[in-house]
What does this fold into?
Amino acid sequence: MAFMANKNRLRKLFGISVIVIALGYILSLVLADPQVTKRYITSFPLDVFIVSSMLSTLAGAVNAYVWHRISWVYNPQVCFANSYWAWSVGRVYRYVPGKVAGYVVRHKLQASGLADGVRSSINEYVITLIPVAILALLYFSLILGNQWGSVIISLGAFFLLLNLRFMLRYVGKYVRRFHDIPDIEQLIFSPIELIKSTLTLLPAMLLHGASFYVLLKYGMGEESYSYVYATAALYLSGILGQLSLLSPAGLGVREAALSMMLSASGVDGQLAVGAALLSRIVLLMSEVINILLALWLRSVQKYRKI
It folds into this structure.
């Protein structure tokens, strides 16, 4: 018990330290020239904000469909309207301290069983991780100037992630010699199902990338950052934000990571932090719109059943 208590304290201390460092980094960029940062945010064109928000909203709807598709594998009775509503509300609940709240609410609204909910959430994370891992390898390898190496490493990572189920099968056989546990490899989709779901997810990634690229290029006048880099930076910072379990929805950590990645690629520091903060506002706006759309779709479905 004492060991677990110390472990939890260390985990909380690490989580708080990450948040403090992230917020400190953002604050240092803002204080370096607060007037410039303020100008970047307050002078942001409204039409660009609307376009960026709409692209992010469409990406969210696609993500909701991916979630529905994953859930349907375990529960064919679930309908898209319920999945869309559950996913959208769950996204907002991520801002409650303790990100698990978002997953719990999502499963309750969709009436998923505990086992199905856990399996669906694990597969959703793996499916998101596959393209993001490849983007990360490509991003850092291209920055280092080793294009062929990045392609080879990315293909290798893709192969390993696709075969995660088979690797877990062998791990499970070994673990079951000492413990009575279920087949842990059944938690992960087969390689074919992972590929199908990943292909379904790609439009969402492209739309999210386009949303951030429009924000950077047309809203802030940053011409040097390519669409590929914008997409990679956005998703990599999002994953880092998710890994910070104590930060609600990755607040602060995601923005710090995105600002750092933009600055490391030659983007002005004040522009970088302004873009990171604006991207959070765009994301929040799209999440609210998705909730309203999901509520409307749900009401339409109920009306047709009457």
Summary: The chain is about 80% helix and 0% strand. The mean pLDDT is 79.
